[in-house]
Specification:
Length: about 120
C-alpha cells in the first residue's frame, strides 16, 4: 500500500511561484508514472503534468506549459511540481497520483490547496 502526501500549497500573488511536493511511502515509488491533477471549485478535475518512472520524459497540459515543471527524485520517493508565473486561474486543489504501466491510477494524494490572488 502506497501513501502519497502532498505539501507546499499556499496563497501567492499572481506572478509568483510555488513548489509542490508529493512524497510516497510504503511501496516502490519508481514503479509508477506520477501525474499531477488539479480541481478548481465547481469544475472537473483536470490533468496538469506527468513524469515517467525514471524521470526522463514529461508532458504538460497546454494551460501550464512553459510555466510549470515536474521532476522526481526516486531516491527520496518524491515528485515535485514547480509552478512559476502563477495566475488566478491556477487556483485549485492539486493532487498527485501514481499510475501503473497499464494506465490505471492506483494511488492518490489528499491534495494541497493553491490559491493565487490577483
Amino acid at each position: 500500500q502506497v501513501q502519497l502526501v502532498e505539501s507546499g500549497g499556499g496563497l501567492v500573488q499572481a506572478g509568483g511561484s510555488l513548489r509542490l511536493s508529493c512524497t510516497a511511502s510504503g511501496g516502490t515509488f519508481s514503479f509508477y508514472t506520477m501525474d499531477w491533477f488539479r480541481q478548481a471549485p465547481g469544475k472537473e478535475r483536470e490533468f496538469v503534468a506527468t513524469i515517467t518512472r525514471g524521470g526522463g520524459s514529461t508532458n504538460y497540459a497546454d494551460s501550464v506549459k512553459g510555466r510549470f515543471t515536474t521532476s522526481r527524485d526516486n531516491a527520496k520517493n518524491t515528485v515535485y511540481l514547480q509552478m512559476n508565473s502563477l495566475k488566478p486561474e491556477d487556483t485549485a486543489v492539486y493532487y498527485c497520483a501514481a499510475r501503473l504501466p497499464s494506465g490505471d491510477y492506483r494511488y492518490w494524494g489528499q491534495g494541497t490547496q493553491v490559491t493565487v490572488s490577483s
